[in-house]
Design brief:
This protein has about 325 residues and is mostly beta strands. About 10% of the residues lie in helices and about 25% in strands.
Length: about 325
C-alpha cells in the first residue's frame, strides 16, 4: 500500500433515472433545459483530446519517465445563479444538482488560480506569470461535485466558460470509466466522461478511495466471480489532475499536490476531505515550453494510455 503523506424559480427541474449496475443511465431535464449527463447518443469530444485504445496496451512495469512534463493550471469555478437559476431535483429522497449549462453563468476565481509543473509524476508549484496564455493547451476539463448524498462527479472535457455545455456538448456527463484488461497483470480503469462503466474495474486502492474517487465509484464485488486485480487508474489527463483538487479543502491544494502526487502513485493524506457540495474546478494542461523535447502531445498521450504504467497505481 502506498505511504501516507507526511503530517490530510428553483422548480424541481432535474429528475434522475435509476442507474443500472455497471452502466450509466442519463440524468434528464425537461426539453427546454435538457442536461443529458450520459447518453449513448451524446456528442463525443474531439478524439485528439481523448485518445483511446485499438487494443489493450502492452503492460509495462516501468515508471513514468522523469523527463516528461507539462504545466497544470487550477482555477476554481463557481455557479452564478443571477445568470442562470439553480437546477435541482429529488429522487428517492436524495437531492440532485446540475451545474449551469451556459458559459456565462459562472464566476471564475482567478484570484485563487494555482499553476504547477508536473514532471515525471511529481508536482512543483510555480507562479502563474510563468504561463504564456497564448500557448495552446493540451487539454482541459471542468469538474463539479454534487450534493453530499449524490456523490457522482460531473464533468466535461473542456473549459465550461468557453462552450455552452448544453447546446454544444449535450449536457454534463457523469465521470465514468472504460475497463482495459491487461491479462494476468490486472485491469486498468480509464477515467473519462464517455466510459461505459460506472464503477472501477477492480477494488480501488485504499490510498485513493475515497480521497480521489468517492466510494460510489468503487468496485461492486460479485460473489459468483473471482475478484479482479486492479492495474490502477489511467485516462484523460485533465480529469486525473482534477481529482486531487477535491481530496482536501481548497486552501490545501498546493500541499496536497506537491506531497501526495508521486510517480505512478497517490500517497494518502490525513486532511479533512474536500468533497463539499457544488465545488467546481477548471483544470487546463499545457505543454511545458521549457521542456519542448519531453513535453509533447504524443508523450502525454502515452501517459494517458498507460504506456508507462498507471497514473495512480493500485
Amino acid at each position: 500500500m502506498a505511504d501516507t503523506c507526511a503530517h490530510t424559480h428553483p422548480d424541481p427541474i432535474l429528475s434522475v433515472l435509476s442507474t443500472r449496475k455497471g452502466n450509466i443511465d442519463q440524468y434528464s431535464l425537461p426539453r427546454v433545459m435538457h442536461v443529458n449527463l450520459y447518453s449513448s447518443h451524446h456528442r463525443i469530444p474531439e478524439r485528439s483530446l481523448l485518445p483511446t485504445f485499438a487494443s489493450a496496451p502492452a503492460f509495462s512495469p516501468r515508471r513514468i519517465p522523469s523527463e516528461i512534463s507539462c504545466l497544470v493550471l487550477y482555477e476554481p469555478l463557481e455557479p452564478n445563479y443571477q445568470k442562470q437559476p439553480i437546477r435541482v431535483g429529488t429522487q428517492g429522497g436524495n437531492k440532485f444538482w446540475a451545474p449551469p449549462d451556459r458559459k456565462n453563468a459562472y464566476v471564475r476565481r482567478r484570484d485563487r488560480a494555482r499553476l504547477f509543473r508536473w514532471k515525471g509524476g511529481r508536482m512543483t508549484q510555480i507562479t502563474t506569470e510563468s504561463l504564456d496564455k497564448e500557448h495552446p493547451p493540451y487539454g482541459a476539463a471542468t469538474v463539479f461535485t454534487q450534493w453530499r448524498d449524490t456523490n457522482h462527479l460531473l464533468a466535461v472535457t473542456f473549459d465550461a466558460e468557453e462552450k455552452n455545455v448544453g447546446e454544444e456538448y449535450g449536457g454534463w456527463k457523469v465521470l465514468s470509466f472504460r475497463h482495459i484488461p491487461l491479462g494476468p497483470q490486472g485491469t486498468y480503469s480509464e477515467v473519462d466522461v464517455a466510459g461505459d462503466q460506472q464503477q472501477l474495474a477492480a477494488p480501488g486502492s485504499r490510498a485513493w478511495t475515497p480521497q480521489l474517487l468517492p466510494t460510489i465509484y468503487d468496485y461492486d464485488p460479485n460473489p459468483n466471480l473471482p475478484q479482479p486485480v486492479s492495474a490502477g487508474l489511467i485516462g484523460n489527463l485533465p480529469l486525473l489532475f482534477a481529482l486531487p483538487a477535491f481530496s482536501a479543502e481548497p486552501y490545501q491544494l498546493p500541499y496536497v499536490l506537491t506531497n501526495c502526487m508521486q510517480p505512478n502513485e497517490w500517497r494518502k493524506h490525513e486532511l479533512p476531505h474536500g468533497h463539499e457540495p457544488q465545488r467546481g474546478m477548471v483544470v487546463t494542461v499545457f505543454l511545458d515550453p521549457s521542456n519542448k523535447d519531453w513535453s509533447t502531445k504524443a508523450l502525454l498521450d502515452e501517459v494517458h494510455n498507460g504506456n508507462h504504467g498507471p497514473f495512480y497505481g493500485p
